[in-house]
Amino acid sequence: MFFVISPDPPIKQGQTRYHFLILLFSKDEDFSLMLSMNEEEVEKPFEGQLTKDMSGSLYEMVSQVMKVLVNHKITVPDNF
Description:
The protein is α+β, with helices and mostly antiparallel strands. It is 26% helix and 30% strand.
């Protein structure tokens, strides 16, 4: 599973600009995450969109956290 990030402005290293960052995740990799915040710190600023204990596929958790942090829509693949 690929996760593509398009930073604005692009990341620049020397004269080269990188318009996209591509992360590669395995579909079979499950992950468990425990945020180092108490329940109130998680629920109040993120309006209940995140939980303190999260588990599942790594790519799903990364997309969920990114969606909440950057407040943008994330496009996911679907079956055709």
